[in-house]
């Protein structure tokens, strides 16, 4: 396509007077009378919807916060449980170093999960705590964390309600595991006490407004931890009634109600942690959520004013440009005619598509390239399915959508089309949007079709030459290497074995010397056809030079499977090969290597199989050897 238009076909230049012509001003008034009521009507509708939008966005944000908070709590409780298991193991194994281990553990976790570790004996007497030696011997049998393990025989993890610790006189949440001897008899209980404040530190990282709240409660409604902007401890230990989040409720959900602790109406989202019997709730006051609506209402009014101004300016400019555009289109039509003539002379077919209907008009050359009698075809819907190859159809449509949406400067794609006789021909299509409406939507597109069968056939031929043996048509060393690497990756991932059988032909040199190289080449082709027919579709037979061949078995159970295939190859090589009036009798020397036993990569496997092949030669030829003679 020409990059420019001659001076005689250029669109008229813009003049300031075009904006103040009576017709332009009249059309502008009509345009504004139609558009401005629509704009402000939409503003009014959107403002009316903002209350529900504010609520839905608030609920969505709260659900996201609840999920994040849940993961924080789950990770924290999991870390506490892991700490209890590790410390219990130390207590049972080396009680003298237990205090030192607890100290090291506390230093390691002081910024992650600070906790007080306590051990009570089977009678509930305190025998160790890092809260201070003065507490040793105290009766803690009233601890829920202690008596929860008295009747239980399993190794359960206990998480309790918040209590005021008799050791620190502060609110704590107890987690515990039983200490039992080898016969399962209770020897004591190890308890970790964590401050409720630690579970709601998440509140400081989110903005829930002045009256937001974050809580961690049990499934039966007991408040474990709670935080608001006012305080962190109000309501701890209290039991909430009529909760929608129970042990049988969905894992996550939302609701709206007046808080039972501070009487503030909030939107709430919950997320249960079933494995620990806990529920996370995150709430935002209805009043605070409504403030977002008020702000958006003001913003929307400003947007309405801005859009009105922009529509006025854009409409005015569009109406003033109508006459110029009409003249420009006439000039463009003349230029396109010359362009089409030039393309036809170059052998390309021209198409012109109405993007509103999707119908493309074809030049006679384009009809010839597509092998169709129709002068008009559709670029939309299912019309392309009948002529475009299924493998290229998604790419064709994606390229077309991308260009129409303005994401690509030009439309360019290669695909196959079905000819009348049923075969496929490669086509290159190029095009560009030549006309858009005032809103930038595409109206018209022009382009070309070119037949590229010659180039595609040459590319295919070059690929075959790079990966196939010219004499036998078998994979060459390059393609074998690719398939061998892929087989090793698959075997390493799935845990099975892969085998390589390396062999050459015994008595092949006399064939060349006696009957000539042409006879030797025909014998290699006969060998390739016979052996290929005896292998699985997934196996690879490759010629890597002279009379040397390699068989790749990408999946086998062991050396026995590979040996069976090798013996079959040897048996086929021992059968006579008929070449016209000549009968050739040869044999083979075969070596087997197994991945991962004999090598961890392709080169190592080939070296091992090559070495095994030379062992077969050294032991008299016409035999199979492997790196696993004891198993073969």
Quaternary organisation of the protein chains: single chain
Q: First CA to last CA: what distance? A: 70 Å
Spatially, the strands of the biggest sheet line up as 13-12-11-16-15-14
> Which structural category do the helix and sheet elements fall into?
alpha+beta
Which descriptor suits the 3D outline? flat
Give the helix level as a range of percent.
40-55%
Q: State the major sheet.
A: 6 strands, antiparallel
Provide the low-confidence segments as ranges.
Answer: 1-12
Helix count, DSSP H or I runs of 4 or more residues: 13
Mean pLDDT: 83
Q: How many beta-strand segments?
A: 23
- Radius of gyration, in Å, reads 41 Å
Report what the structure shows.
With 632 residues, the chain is α+β, with helices and mostly antiparallel strands. It has 13 helices and 23 strands. The strands form five sheets. A six-stranded antiparallel beta sheet has the order 13-12-11-16-15-14, with helices on both faces. It is flat and about 105 Å long. Helix 10 runs antiparallel to helix 11 (517-533). Mean pLDDT is 83; it is low at 1-12.
